[in-house]
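Thought: the user wants the 3D structure for the chain below. I'll pass the sequence to the structure tool as-is, report back what it returns, then summarize two notable features.
Action: structure_tool
Action Input:
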Amino acid sequence: MQPQLAADTLVDTLRNRVADQPQTTAYTFLIDGDSEGSCLTYSGLERLAQAIAAHLQLNTMPGDRVLLLYPSGLEFVAAFFGCLYAGVIAVPAYPPRQNHSLHRLQAIAADAQASLILTTATLQATMQHQFASVSEFASIPVVATDAIASIDSVGTHSETWQAPAIHADTLAFLQYTSGSTGTPKGVMISHGNLLHNLECIKQAFELTSASVSVTWLPSFHDMGLIDGILQPLYTGFLGVLMPPVSFLQRPLRWLQAISHYKATHCGGPNFGYDLCVHKILPGQRQSLDLSHWQSAYNGAEPVRRSTLERFTQAFAVCGFQSRCFYPCYGMAETTLIVAGGQVSADPVYAPVSTTALEQHRIETTVGETEGTTHLVGCGRSRLGMQLAIVDPDTLKRCPPDIVGEIWVAGASVAQGYWNRPEQTEQTFQAHLADTDLANTEAGAFLRTGDLGVIQNGELFVT
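Observation:
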């Protein structure tokens, strides 16, 4: 196991990897979820990042927002690090599709006041045509980073790169929330937030340089970006990426890749496991080896006991064990993870009265009593992160058997919402009414808007 190298920023992290293991493969991309396409070593990634950064340093100012619109692939990884290496703020978003509304993308571009759009040469012409009549994009140049990388094959651009003046408090990127309840909000994630959360994830999942991950999660989503792309680099293990559509069309591809690469750390939302159970036939399971899988994390939406049990039963023949399941809780406003359990421990379940739960009370039931809801434990917080269950009206802590709003404090909590001071104050600067501010370690809390309870130290999201 290699020691974690000291770093204040993600740029430091990659530079340390290059100095220590330049030719080690950092990422492999599966083009259609089946066949191996491009790969990137640490030194190869840095060369591309420096080339893109040099171009950005000539065409942007430090702190400018740059919109990243990429299909699945390693071009996105290079562009994201190119932004970090240039000292500009990356804004990952879903690339526009033919005959689909640009409303969400327009809202993001306008809110972030993007000065540049990065994409691939394949998408550049299409994008320029789509954007021609849209006011939010009319004055924003669209640049193909794979063309920059091609020109830089002799090293001309990367030689002009200058290390940016960045530190732990510098914003790394804006993570735009789903916007399902209104205009998308850009969560401000600093380098310090990222490194703290990446260390939380590393400790929670007991990751080492011998770990391997396979992810189908979108790169513009917090789980796909931070756990799928940044965590492998932070800890120093191989990250295998595949397009989300490859998984959605044929979930078997994900489990085949996990089997082939002997992956140890993979996961996704609850529905992904349901999809595997429903779409992968018994005869197809015979060739899979899932015995190396150590942490099958499940988060981003309600975790269901029935899903975990069905998946375990369906894939026990492949060597998958129930203790590999890792329910967890997190959100964009906390960078990613907030709480998680113990690796190699079975999931924690709490059978409770459905009627009492509807009244925001916890009453434990015994056996398979009718009217029982099975809550799934999402573990505990780590690295100084603090959790509180709070009455959203009185702002006082709830008793252990009362459901309340989940509040979070700690170094992974983001800096607020981009250009939204009132919403930032309401969401990120909450204080407990029953705590003396001078005597609390946490100070301000993030109000998650989610409800839950803590029982015997275990967080249950209700």
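Final Answer: Structure generated. Residues 53 and 85 are 6 Å apart (CA to CA). The first strand starts at residue 25 and ends at 30.
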